[in-house]
Amino acid sequence: MVKQPNNILITGGAGFIGSNLALTLQEIYPESKILILDDFSSANFKNLKKFKGEVLACDVSSDEIFFKADEFQPDLIFHLASITDTTVTDQELMMRKNVDGFKNVLEIAYDNEATVVYASSASVYGNVKEHIPLKEDREKSPENVYAFSKYIMDNIAEDFSEKTGLKVVGVRYFNVYGYGEAHKGKFASMIYQLYRQMKAGKRPRLFKWGEQKRDFVYIKDAVEATILAKEAPHSTVYNVGSGEARSFNDIVSLLNKYLGLDLQPDYFDCPYDFYQEYTQADMSKIKEELGFVPKYNLEKGIKEYVDILEGRI
Questions:
Q1: Active site residues
Q2: What is the reported pTM?
Q3: Is the pLDDT of residue 87 over 90?
């Protein structure tokens, strides 16, 4: 039987994944105390209307984290706070918020001998040419400063664990979608963006010719994998995806089906110098070590998501 943590700290707990994680943890561990730290730069209090714990405003890359987290004495930390906007080009800001913030969290973990589960990203793999599932140990090629910051966090986590003996586990998210992301606006998932366009009666806009493929993982699967990660037998990094690569055309087709529409895509040229054409997670490691198998394929995930957005459930 898994030991119930006494004090759970969640950084970035008012954001998309963080809020879903917090609400799930309070159901699983009703006797645990949960503290959320978030600077609310990419969050919405509405995501936490059913949260029963404490929420404090805090920039984890600043010294205030030590005053607000040390007294709490966490024995389990989920670190999701970071700049997730991949269009940010301010390299100093990205590295300070993401990398310096992570180092502060690890210092809190060291002081309290806490296990840490932190958000990594599939962006560390870069623009993969071959269409094969991506294994965690493959060569990394971060193409922007966001991906680079996550790559450096992975390196720091490994070094910290070797030096301290504490368990630090990365969850390398692929394209997460689902309820609670609306506040992200244009940085929400493509599934939400396309839903909004089609709901408004507009043709869904896709880069030519909509056959770019991504590994889309539903929020409930992402949260389950994140919580399971704390049971890892050792410090490591796990891919968190669906294990399937699906096209943007597939998304449009499913949204048409579940919304009762028949809108054809409006294809246009991709304006970006760098754009990932294909991502697919190799999920064998997390399955073998933790027994995690995604419960939602794209059909099931989009159907449930649309039902929620349409007020059907």
A1: 146, 184
A2: 0.96
A3: no
